[in-house]
Amino acid sequence: KAQFFCYAHNPGTSLTRIMALLADILVALVAVAVPLTVYYGMFGNIAGGKMEYSNWFSWHPIFMALAFPGMMTLGRWSYMVDASWSKLEKGTRRKAHAVAMGLAVLFAAVGYLCVFKAHLPKGQFFGYDFQLSAWKPWSRVAHVWAGYLVLTLSFAQAAMGAVKMIHLQSGEKILRFHGTLGKIIVLLSAVAVLLAIYLWSWSPAMKAILGVLTILGAGFCMQSSTPGPAGEEKPLHGDA
Question: Is the pLDDT of residue 72 over 70?
Fold first, then answer.
């Protein structure tokens, strides 16, 4: 497996280019498959589905799937797309990364709005039922608090990313932990998603499919990109 992903960083022969292309396609498929599968899981004629489109909560997992296993995976992989076939300059990759991560944060905000609207009449927040004065089961509480942590870190990461982009234009190197924090956010989001999969009343097969896809997406994001000649901190105006 490790050798497979190494192909994405060592352009040269036709075989390595083919493997790099396959790796990029696989990442894109996983990023798209998770939100589509969640959509089917919420509205399809299956166990755990048949939700109403007018139900605020129905859209919460869909937007969260778009945000984290979806756009965040693509945003991270924008730095990993193989140059031997894509010919993407560092500046283009950086801009694609910013757009994907910006959309991820936007989708996450909408996803939170959906669950907020759903739980407001019930008085349920932070895993606590304020009407009954009782905590929800541990798995739900863990999911909720993991979600709040991910949201907080994501908003902070987006703000730092914007500041980093501004300083990169003049070649100033700041916030060098940005990439590491991004990986931490991805891992925490995967934990939150896996807890949600465990909580929902889908069939074991459906849960297994979503669980594997979520873990794959997180695994892709943990790959380390190999700096090219441009270097990650090269000024944007210096890119072709």
Answer: yes
